[in-house]
Amino acid sequence: MTSQQRPERSPEYPLECDHCHYPIPSEPEETDDGQFCSTACLEASEDDEDEMPDPSAYKRIVTGVEPLDSLIPNGVPADSFVCLSGTAGTRRSELLTELVWRAIERGEPAVLVTATTPPAAVLERFFENGWNVLPALEDDRLRLVDCFTHRLADRDAFRDHRGEWIEFVGEAAADSIVPIEEPTDVEPILRECNAALDDLEMTETGLVAIDSLSELGRGLETDHVHEFVTETRATVCKARYVPIFGGWTAGDEGVAMDESIFDGVVDLRLADHLEPDTRLRQLGVRKLTGARYLPQWITYEYEPVRGLVASVVESAGQATPGGPPSREMQGVRERR
């Protein structure tokens, strides 16, 4: 675009840097090749043959999970470590499973760290929902970091008693499973997680799900689970722009966790006191750094294939679904 074609600067339409794509707050550095916000961007554009990607294309993620996206209309910052805090019965594992599936559905890779069940059982959750992950396993778009199996007292007995279908799934996923032989040590978990992201070329794409931080923490010392969160937040979220969603059992006194280390906290609760004889599941965003979110509770239900869906509750004081992501966020890391 030439200088004659560029729009006039105004508060509503500030000039945009042709390298970093952010607004230019002062007089631009201009050349025949474009306009730049700083000498650094000007020199970088001269040195780099490839244009810097538009940050809106990877710095926010529309998850594809209806209740969550209803409360975060402009998307989740991609450099976030989000804690999903809920009690038993809130469908937290289903939410983590759906987050992974929606990423795969968008054509992005995903890493799932499991500390609660063996990998084949984790994969069975996808099949139970009607989500076939076999192609993703075959195309190497899904990696499972297994922090569970080596904690079994008799692993051979577990393998010997598998049914035909589970044995088939385990064999199909064999190349995609990363066994952690020492799940009580944070170092191999960190190392294998980063190796999986390297193998899948996960930078500015995909996501990581952890099911669950509480169970992972039971095998680690308290300061080590804190170390795991801070290390993965730095090396995965902040360095790669790959978000992490980690499940956490609300009120679990067995493992202490300082929630201030998370970028976001999403609460899932059973609110049976709001409707007599009805146990409502509700989701609310307690905090999410760098993002706009609605300060309300969304009532949700779970349906196979559809996943978690927002539901309308007509009782006084109940939140109704917040609608789809805002227009400017349509298509942001959402290429379904």
Automatic annotation (TrEMBL):
<dbReference type="InterPro" id="IPR027417">
    <property type="entry name" value="P-loop_NTPase"/>
</dbReference>
<protein>
    <submittedName>
        <fullName>RecA-superfamily ATPase implicated in signal transduction-like protein</fullName>
    </submittedName>
</protein>
<keyword id="KW-0067">ATP-binding</keyword>
<dbReference type="Pfam" id="PF06745">
    <property type="entry name" value="ATPase"/>
</dbReference>
<feature type="domain" description="KaiC-like">
    <location>
        <begin position="63"/>
        <end position="304"/>
    </location>
</feature>
<dbReference type="GO" id="GO:0005524">
    <property type="term" value="F:ATP binding"/>
</dbReference>
<feature type="region of interest" description="Disordered">
    <location>
        <begin position="316"/>
        <end position="336"/>
    </location>
</feature>
<dbReference type="InterPro" id="IPR014774">
    <property type="entry name" value="KaiC-like_dom"/>
</dbReference>
<keyword id="KW-0547">Nucleotide-binding</keyword>
